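Q: I have 465 residues here and want to know how they pack in 3D. Can you give me a structure?
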Amino acid sequence: MTINANKDLVLGWEEWVSLPGLGLPAIRAKVDTGAKTSALHAFSIEPYGRENRRKVRFGIHPIPERPEIEVYCSADLVDQREITSSNGETELRYIISTSLDIGGIQWPIEISLTNRETMQYRMLIGRSALQDKAIVDPNKSCVQGVLNEGAYDDFPRREAPKRSLKIGILSREPNSYSTRRLAEAAEERHHLVEVINTTQCYMNITSMRPEVHIDGRKLDGFDAIIPRIGSSVTFYGMAVVRQFEMMGVYSLNSSAAIGASRDKLYAHQLLARNGIGMPITGFARSPNATSELIKFVGGAPLVLKLLEGTQGKGVVLAETKKAAESVIGAFQGLKANILVQEFIKEAGGADIRCFVIGGKVIAAMKRQGEEGEYRSNLHQGGKAERVRITKEERAAAVKAAKVLKLGMAGVDLLRAEDGPKVLEVNSSPGLEGIEKVTGKNIAGLVIDYIEKYARPMPVGGRSKL
């Protein structure tokens, strides 16, 4: 059978082709105009990427007679379709888009992936791939010449990729820097990623099999989640994380650890009990204790912190005893819970953010407040620079994260005359400032840590693409 063509490209019933987009220099393919779709041999087929950037990776033995040659490829994922083979069997296959090169002429085609290990040809070219590109003469063979399969002799041997993970990022801000970087880092390692709006999730608490749903579908098949829980939705966010944990999904930070870090009073109590240096801190409910609280922290100037405050908000510096008494009284009148804390003057309005992953400080930066500003938070106009931390500062940051049982943490500390003082431990530290200042791929290191501890589910355990 022949196909009308606009080009002077003549093909036989079999041809040597190359797939440059997949890094395959030579494959002997059967040209079958009786078949509509094209097919390529593939094994260990795994999809990955976000909804709008789906890709698939797979392995292939391009030369049937040389099974020791094993190449791993990655391509854009176009679709998943039911394909009926010549023997009448129907199979649901992944469809990829790549480029086909025959006789030096190259054009884009779609190919279905299927295991052709028992087939003589590793690739079948159907009529939809030929379009108007060629004329097929079924009486001829290898009209466009024979490619040298020796091209694989010096082919770089690559180990089979690790099993991909299905990772959920719990975040209400899919376009934030931190969320985007974590998703990109996971995709670069060929993991399937989904950004999940935490507050849009809902759960059947009484179900015998714990489930999390969103937009009418069940969130299943996840190997790991990365909680990016905003302080305003801590209670609900912890409930969602707990539900995933009940489903056996690994969480970078557990719900219990997130809760401990968000409760500033409880966190300070845990840190103090474990001998971690902190600014002297007091807490009281009764207005009658105000004078004693001020004495506890060494008098004015002192710092007042709302327990629910974040990013430097809800933090007040009281420079005199009278000002401190006035602010404490105002907060107590509003039924607000506050901490009264020693002011570390020698810190000079600067603190150090240590980024801890898996018990190691992987990056650190110094944040300096603006002139006359005692708060160093970048959200309050502070500036950051790379810093070399001391052995004592490193140990304090690591121990603080360990005490709160956080796999990932941003530990903020001050440099005091008698050693480092831990200010706060953040369970959802931002990546933008510290990546830009240090030049380190923090997001990639986070994914490395998840790969080490998350257990991928068995192949075939995921019900949907």
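Q: Anything worth noting?
A: The first helix runs from residue 127 to 130. The radius of gyration is 30 Å.
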